[in-house]
Fold these 2 entries.
Entry 1:
Amino acid sequence: MSQTLFDTIWNTHLVAESGTGSSLIAIDRVFLHERTGAAALKRMAEMGRAVLDPARVFAVMDHIVDTRPGRGDGTLMPGGEAFISETRAACRAAGITLFDVNDRDQGIVHVISPELGVVLPGCTLVAPDSHTCTQGAFGAFAWGIGSSEAEHAMATGTLRLTKPKQMRVRFEGVLAPGVTAKDMALHLIAAHGAGGGKGHVIEFAGQAVGALDMEARMTLCNMATEFSAVGALIAPDAQTFAYLAGRRYAPASFDDPYWRTLASDPDALFDVDIIIDSASIAPMVSWGTSPEHAVPVNGAVPQGPDRAHQYIGLAPGQQLEGTPIDAAFIGSCTNSRLSDLRRAAAIVRGRRIAPGVRKALVVPGSMAVKRAAEAEGLDRVFIEAGFEWRMSGCSLCFYAGGEGFPDGARVMSSTNRNFEGRQGPGIRTHIASPETVAASALAGAIADPRKVLAS
Amino acid sequence: MNPVSTITSPAVPLLRDNIDTDTIIPSREMKTTGRAGLADGLFAPWRYTDAAARVRDPAFVLNQRDAIGTRLLLAGRNFGCGSSREHAVWAMAEFGIEAIIAPSFAPIFKANCLRNGLLPVELPEEVVQSLQWKMVRIDLPAQTVTAGDRQWQFDIDPEAKQMLLEGLDAIDLTRKSQPEIDRWLARDRIERPWIYLGEES
């Protein structure tokens, strides 16, 4: 019987079936961060439960760490230090590999996991973080879980799951210039709704997906959780294996015939199939308070829920392009990798951000990304344009009570969530690609990156 | 986890779609690494006009007199989307919510509910609408929701149902399958040695 890639991974990891229809699925990798990881490890210790195989569990400080240069354990978030110190102590006690605040490999969990070769094609990887689906870009089943499930995975090496339904989203054809993986994700969510993935595992396929580099594939898979999917994956190809080969926790080579089995059969059946004409996708910007509230940058605000219009301060029919902004943020597990920074830098090179933009941050996704960007001089490009150049971390993708944007700011952000208050009480977030954020920062208003690229 | 069987409560409506976990409990309200003390931060952005001073917004539904002591919340589509923070469920449970009825739930939030004895019930949107402020009885063994003389059936994963009814701990349950886990690991170490770090293969 023909199988999907997800079927193959599921079957490989099937330990046992319960009499009540759930399955015990083996978990190959667990990755924790200080925001939710300490809670899980602390509770395990309280319950007298040990981590089954600490060599396959990793942790990093990324969520609330300070991103200003010269940082230590101090954090602008009130009480934030406790999360850092307790995570450190709990990891040490459990024998877990920790990438600490000033480790040279520190970074956002979903950025450093592939950099270090922790995620592998065909593996199962969980983290108490909803954007774990990012790592499905490597052909892994990677998904976000809660703290209790993290405890379960660490204590038993398994999770109890009911097999999710499967969806395939095929991006046929070729993307237009200036259109990126971020725009593909926003286009999909805007077209099918924030609940459109409804608990499915998604396989992204099609010509435009195959043409994406690994970093862009991560961007696409990253927002599967904004689509209410359990996870997303992309079948590994030569590019995937070349990216991972020889990284610290990855095999030196991917010559084993096993790796070639990680693909859906051509006639495999999915519960839902969606086909998208990639040429029809434009650079997207969110206008409201859900990722489904997104339109092409040169479009008008459609009629949405009153509350969303009220919060964001934009009426139906208004043009998005030209709407003044107060701040710009380039970073997050969606768009903070070297290629993201290169594309944004190409837009801002030799230009200045508009005077009305009171806060503009570039936060590299990892210290490795930061070093690579600095080696190319990208830090100078951003600093000369008026951006702050930070240490890596999740930073202002969300507001934890410490550093924030100016009151009531309208922020162009390369992040994944434009929820009410996500970046701070009253902060109005517009999510878009790094190049759209960069172009908007220069204009001081929501701007179409294609116009800068053409000039 | 406390066993769940039947819940009878007035149904308090919060019928917005895509209510996210940042709204259920904002990051800035997650002040400790423990599970307790979160109820105060539940729906903080909506419940308070001034969250820092805890000044209540009388217009918010959970601050209304009829909502005091409620155990049941009605919500819109894709409830609990966003961050995986289990704090959202811990905050709701500590506040006293025992069940949520919505047309759909975000997958991580739903899984977190089931691990904490909070019952997520999926019913069609028009049914959820019709339950506003009604006295509602949820019967988990029978998988029914009753309001007045109307009754609806709901689906739930059989294992999740059993675990809720018996208040089972998932880790304890899985530990009973230890022999199968050990057998699987022994075989997988040969088939996929690259997975097992720190071991000479």
Entry 2:
Amino acid sequence: MTDAEFDRAVELVAKREKDGLKIIYDAYAKRIYQVIYGIVKNPHDSQDLTADLFMKLWDDPSSYRSGNGHKRYLTVMAKNLALDFLRKAGRQSFEIDAGEKEYVIPDGGDVEKDVTEKMSFTRALEYLNPNQRRVVDMHIGMEMTLREISEALDMPMGTVSWNYRSAIQKLKKIYKGG
Amino acid sequence: MANRIQKGYRSHMEQNSPDMDKMWEKIQQHIDSQPQKPVQTVQENQPEPEMKRRRIGFVKYAAAAACLVAVVAGTVVFMNSKQDKVPADSEKAVVVPASSAPSAQEKEEGKDDKKELQPAQDQIREETADKAPVKAQEKAINRSEDQAAASSASASSGISTKFRELMLSPEYTNSDREGKLKAAENLAKQLKEKGEIEEYVLKKKDTGDRIELKVNEDETRVIMIR
């Protein structure tokens, strides 16, 4: 979906026409769900939060500012909803900038071999740290450029690029399916 | 390899997506449960960089206008202050068309210096009584007494006033040049004797005669005679 198409859909939403929201929903609901799931890690909560996002858009379409990139708008809203949810749920221990250590996969060894040979992509994604996961969800899922991701996450371009590269390397290493 | 990852991600997204119809129903319920709101208009905001550019453009014009106003105001103030600073007894101040009458301010100042002028004017009257141009000068002095024309509080401005009275009487014409010069020289001489000036020099020029009065080491007055 292009920015112009999204703008037209939001105009319909502003005129209280459901069709406008349905167009956006069909195009982005699954992708937004993945972005939210990447943060919340719970399918039910992710589903609720995805629905909340579209309800919010319906309630206040004027919150969208044309010209700033609709994907950025959607992902920022999704990220904020997910983080707010985690805060409210009392999961402050969740760290956005969690380090690599928790997610490091040992180089070599039989355990890795056993895991990687049968591992699905869904399992492989779980080995990414939150930042890597978010960048992958946005770049592959939402089809955002690294620059757009950098602006949406308020993260330096170099960090985004590094996170993406290291995520892809990690996925290549552990995902053998195709 | 990267394509493989992308394919893997897409298949993962399809396999792990929730029931989309169910989720849409939930959203629709929310929409239907809401009371009908008035139609909202989408905020047609311009991109931030463009807005910034516009703001900068406006500031640029405002700054330019402010600078222009400041320059004009500064020039006016400067010119005014320059006019105020021109000494009353400088060349410019003394050179007034012969037909001009003493101003009200000059009259005012003349009153203050009236007593100071008296002895010098009396002497001039005595010494130049037998000469025709000097008669006219006498008339001028008398008129100046009546009109209490030009002078200032300071001694040096007093000197200028005295000469002004001599030179600028309307009775004088170009043919009285010699008489005027003599009268001016006499007055300068008297002032020198009284010690009000240290030295005087009379200069005849085509552009206009002048008498230079050295009041003290630092101050020299130039009186144009027309």
